[in-house]
Write a structure and sequence with these properties.
The protein is α/β, with parallel strands linked by helices. The chain has six helices and ten strands, in the order βββαββαβαααβαβββ. The chain has a single domain, classed as 3-Layer(aba) Sandwich (Rossmann fold). Helix 3 runs parallel beside helix 5. The protein is globular. It starts with 5 loop residues before the first strand and ends with a strand. Bound molecules: adenosine-5'-diphosphate and magnesium ion (MG). Magnesium ion (MG) binds next to helix 1. The site of adenosine-5'-diphosphate (ADP) has 12 residues, from helix 1.
Length: about 230
């Protein structure tokens, strides 16, 4: 156990994609449990890349990434996937909803692809309650193709919140919503993570929303574009 109840600890992280010259170098990045962190930074500075590293979707070249007591790069591919699906909620920038599934089945999907989560009647009820809170209850039996960008985004948020993740990673989660809905959805999101005792790391372009967060991390500091 480490002191201070850190939920995220990144040290000496180095990452580069196999193709291209983008290089991410993060000497240290710490988030305490229950913090609500806003992450800002120029487009292309690696915000999405960092969320993918935290979620174990990408692996670093070097360095340590702990989520709670779990050292993410040390896990096998399968264990990393189970850890991500059961412990982390991820609102992807491009939603990553599955076109051939209904919205309800999309929201329930994490429960169908890992043994670490158990789909019960209560979970189904909670999915419907979340959809109602997010204002998409009438869309539950439609497919993603029939929904607006904002509605898809709400569905993606419901899916990420359903299992009350310890850590919620949100990539521009309010990016497709109109100003009134943005604040409304953010408040709903905050209420949910408060109830679940989750920590939030949210990438946003929206300076107006920054006042809602406990702390803001500017990504510029980590950004180093190398010329080849
Ligand atoms: P941000 O989310 O801050 O806009 P990203 O993390 O999406 O930035 O991207 C950081 C950089 O990495 C960009 O220059 C982008 O073009 C590059 N990049 C993203 N994905 C890949 C990939 N799969 N292969 C090579 N380069 C990539
Ligand atoms: Mg991005």
């Amino acid at each position: 156990m480490r002191e201070n109840k850190e939920i995220i600890l990144v040290e000496n992280l180095e990452f580069g994609y196999p193709a291209g010259d983008f290089h991410l170098n993060i000497p240290e990045f710490r988030i305490q449990e229950f913090e609500k962190i806003g992450v800002i930074g120029p487009s292309g500075s690696g915000k999405t890349t960092l969320l993918n590293l935290l979620a174990g979707i990408l692996l670093p070249l070097k360095g340590e990434i702990f989520i709670g007591d779990q050292m993410i790069p040390g896990l096998t591919d399968g264990d990393r996937r189970d850890f991500r699906i059961s412990q982390i909620g991820f609102v992807f920038q491009d939603f990553q909803l599955i076109d051939y599934l209904s919205i309800l089945d999309n929201i329930l999907h994490p429960y169908r692809i890992t043994k670490a989560l158990k789909l019960t009647a209560n979970v189904r009820t909670r999915a419907i309650d979340l959809a109602r809170d997010m204002g998409i209850e009438d869309k539950l039996y439609r497919h993603p193709g029939d929904l607006s960008q904002g509605e898809k985004q709400r569905a993606a948020i419901c899916r990420a919140l359903l299992h009350r993740p310890k850590l919620l990673l949100a990539d521009e989660a309010t990016g497709n919503l109109d100003p009134a809905n943005k604040v409304l959805i953010l408040e709903l999101l905050f209420r949910q993570i408060q109830q679940s005792g989750s920590t939030l790391v949210a990438v946003t372009h929206d300076v107006e929303l920054l006042k809602y967060f406990d702390r803001v991390i500017d990504f510029k500091a980590f950004y180093k574009k190398e010329t080849m």
